[in-house]
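Box 3.1 A note on notation
Throughout this textbook, protein chains are presented in two layers. The first layer is the amino acid sequence; the second is a token string describing backbone geometry. Keep the layers aligned when reading.
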Amino acid sequence: MGNLVTKIKRFLSNKNTVTIICVVAGILVLYIGYNWRVKSATQPTTIPYAKNALPSRHIITSDDIGFMEVSSSVINKSANMVKTANQLIGKEVMYGTTIPQNSFFYNEAITTSESQPDNVIADIEDGYTLFPLSVDLHTTYGNSIYPGNYIDLWFKGVDDYRKLIYTNLIRSIKVLDVRDNQGQSVFETSSEKRTPAELLFAVPDDMYSLLRKAQYIGNVEIIPVPRNKNYTANPGETEVASEYVKEFILSKAAVIPDEQISTQTNQNNNNNQSNDDTIDESSQDD
């Protein structure tokens, strides 16, 4: 037994022997690691795909989802790929997106219904009114104004001295949606081209009244003017940009004294009631 131990010690103390052992061990490690990596990369994984083409705003159900096996390397290359059906059912296809048939699902192509433009319109805050502005392909700069953009509205008209007025009227107003002449969202789908016919905004009631009065003056244009991405990324308060134009518009419209009419009507009703009481008392005296 002692001789065997001595021989092993001598064998291991030989530098050439140690070198050979290290080389063999290194080769084994590389071989095992390589095989593990290859197996992991090629191991099939089941992921969902779209059985049919899914249009914008489509609510995804289990009937829309098929499953296929792909190698793990395909999934690893795309962190945004949806890997389970539970992440899809009940979600909606993103506004302005169409998921092609047999395509995988990606996170940027699906959303919840609360973030869709129609729901944004339905949830306009109290004290705000929906304002539509008629446009065309030219005034939208070749369909370059998108929902979510913050833009300006400029005023073009002629004053009482027949001089041109052309200036910013509303600053930093958010575009809720872009619609065609059928009331369909222009950017709802990428599978067909739609021509813009109106921009939709939500504005405070007093601003809505101002814009409507401007439209009815005659020989007046409200012109959408897009701004750069920083203007949208850091929007300011939506406000009237020109008090001069505001006063000019208001000077062309009659002031309806609603409160005075209401007060006067109430006073007349009270006076009539008093007269009726006097007549009744006189009748009783007789």
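Residues 119-251 form one domain. The longest helix spans residues 15-42.
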